[in-house]
């Protein structure tokens, strides 16, 4: 493996290992942006005196979605934006609001969990599991704050039944009654106390991680995660073996891509547009939430930025609509690599491979939002970046997944391309990706941000000429 590819792959490992939940993923991206000179702003504040041309900024919503952007010094209201979207969530088991369970005459503690997204749940059996998320805690001064929690040791496990007791050829189980992780060990209140809703031992672990007493843990949102660290694999370190490749790979590459495109102090001097990434929560469950791609988050940010005036420019009542028409969205979500043991599941002329570059995803029924103008612009960017591309469509007799691309394309009316790196075992607790593809995606995204404003003007569809 080339040294540069390995450097990117190892850096991604540090990102994914630090990010077992969307809350942690946003925090990881936030720290990288701060280190790169971005300033944090808030949705609830006026940006009139804060956001300036030539500046680099980011904001978060719910601590699980993030938008970051750089404003060109030549920006004028109604100019176009290079948009790139990804998502921070992955299928997982989430602790129920009342999780305390006991089994077999109280010899085992069990933790009630809820399935989140379309996971391959059988892969969660016999894995070393732990807890991560956020807790709402009361501080000594009485204020209530959110604390990130990541318990760095395996504390839970979902054991399979021994083959001697159930020789079923196809492993099946009930998600409500047989997917329990196990462990061993008078005043009016609006809800039961936390130690009544959850095992006291679990609450104690969370309190210790938050550096508060158990009584000050008021509520939490916890996700089970695989305690085994992500790593490089393969004879030549050509693979990444990891949880949450879908879609922290694209979240990482988006963050690094915009950071690298803005590394030089004069990166925005000749830029007439805005470079923007959006990392959304809740894609795996349909995106219909306050912080999902189907919310007002991205349209609201674009609307506020579209009227931003720079030196010598004035606002226009149609600036928002003009901006959307001139903008483009890259919807970046992981794609399917051809599986060597199941080749018949793939369309014969669209068989992406890992380590062969990002995959452009096409679907005639608009499950992906890609069209020809988008492909042409992406090809131009890839050519300049020296990055190979691949194409993917599903077989006519196969179902097709979807992404944030179609919903954002419909909401914004901006040209859209769906793409992503290829992987195996999508939605498993342990997925496989290509180590070289991390560098490919970062280089492609960097070039996209650098070149979009100039390329956009050369690819016309609804032209009067």
From TrEMBL:
InterPro entries the record matches: Peptidase_M18, Peptidase_M18_dom2
The UniProt record lists the keyword Nucleotidyltransferase: no
Protein keywords: Aminopeptidase, Hydrolase, Metal-binding, Metalloprotease, Protease, Zinc
Cofactor(s) the protein needs: Zn(2+)
Pfam families per UniProt: Peptidase_M18
Keyword Cytoplasm attributed: no
EC number, UniProt record: 3.4.11.21
GO molecular function: metalloaminopeptidase activity; zinc ion binding
Top-level class of the enzyme under EC nomenclature: hydrolase
Reactions catalysed, as given in the entry: Release of an N-terminal aspartate or glutamate from a peptide, with a preference for aspartate
Gene3D superfamilies documented for this protein: Aminopeptidase i, Domain 2 (2.30.250.10), Zn peptidases (3.40.630.10)
Regions that span the bilayer: none
Gene Ontology biological process: proteolysis
GO terms for cellular component: fungal-type vacuole
PANTHER family: ASPARTYL AMINOPEPTIDASE (PTHR28570:SF3)
Family named by the database record: Belongs to the peptidase M18 family.
NCBIfam families: PRK02813.1
Protein name: aspartyl aminopeptidase
């Amino acid at each position: 493996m080339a040294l540069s590819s390995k450097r990117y792959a190892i850096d991604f490992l540090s990102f994914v290992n630090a990010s077992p939940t969307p809350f942690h993923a946003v925090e990881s991206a936030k720290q990288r942006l701060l280190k790169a000179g971005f300033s944090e702003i808030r949705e609830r504040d006026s940006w009139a005196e804060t956001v300036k041309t030539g500046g680099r900024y980011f904001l978060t919503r719910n601590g699980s979605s993030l938008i970051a952007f750089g404003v060109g010094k030549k920006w004028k209201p109604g100019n176009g934006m290079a948009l790139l979207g990804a998502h921070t969530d992955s299928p997982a088991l989430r602790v129920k609001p009342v999780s305390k369970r006991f089994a077999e005459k109280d010899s085992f503690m069990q933790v009630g969990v809820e399935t989140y997204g379309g996971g391959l749940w059988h892969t969660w059996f016999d894995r070393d599991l732990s807890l991560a998320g956020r807790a709402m805690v009361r501080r000594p001064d009485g204020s209530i704050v959110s604390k990130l929690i990541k318990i760095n040791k395996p504390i839970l496990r979902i054991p399979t039944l021994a083959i001697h007791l159930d020789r079923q050829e196809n492993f099946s189980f009930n998600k409500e009654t047989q997917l329990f992780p196990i462990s061993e060990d008078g005043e009016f209140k609006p809800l039961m106390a936390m130690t009544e809703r959850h095992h006291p031992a679990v609450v104690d672990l969370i309190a210790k991680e938050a550096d508060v007493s158990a009584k000050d843990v008021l509520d939490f949102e916890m996700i089970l995660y695989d305690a085994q660290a992500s790593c490089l694999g393969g004879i030549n370190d050509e693979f990444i073996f990891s949880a949450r490749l879908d879609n922290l790979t694209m979240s990482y590459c988006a963050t690094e891509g915009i950071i690298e495109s803005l590394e030089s102090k004069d990166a925005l001097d000749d830029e007439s547009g805005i470079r923007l990434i959006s990392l959304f929560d809740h894609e795996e469950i349909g995106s219909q939430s306050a912080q999902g791609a189907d919310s007002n988050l991205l349209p609201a940010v674009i609307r506020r930025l579209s009227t931003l005036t720079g030196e010598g420019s004035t606002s226009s009542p149609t600036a928002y609509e003009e901006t959307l028409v001139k903008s483009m969205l890259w919807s970046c979500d992981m794609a399917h690599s051809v599986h060597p043991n199941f080749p018949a599941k793939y369309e014969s002329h669209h068989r992406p491979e890992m380590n062969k570059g990002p995959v452009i995803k096409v679907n005639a029924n608009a499950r992906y939002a890609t069209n020809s103008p988008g492909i042409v612009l992406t090809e131009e960017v890839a050519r300049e970046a020296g990055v190979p591309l691949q194409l993917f469509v599903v077989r006519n007799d196969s179902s097709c997944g979807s992404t944030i691309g179609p919903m954002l394309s419909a909401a914004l009316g901006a040209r859209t391309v769906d793409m992503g790196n290829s992987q195996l075992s999508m939605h498993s607790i342990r997925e496989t990706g290509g180590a070289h593809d991390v560098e490919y995606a970062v280089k492609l995204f960097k070039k996209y941000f650098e070149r979009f404003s100039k390329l956009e003007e050369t690819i016309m569809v609804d032209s009067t000429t």
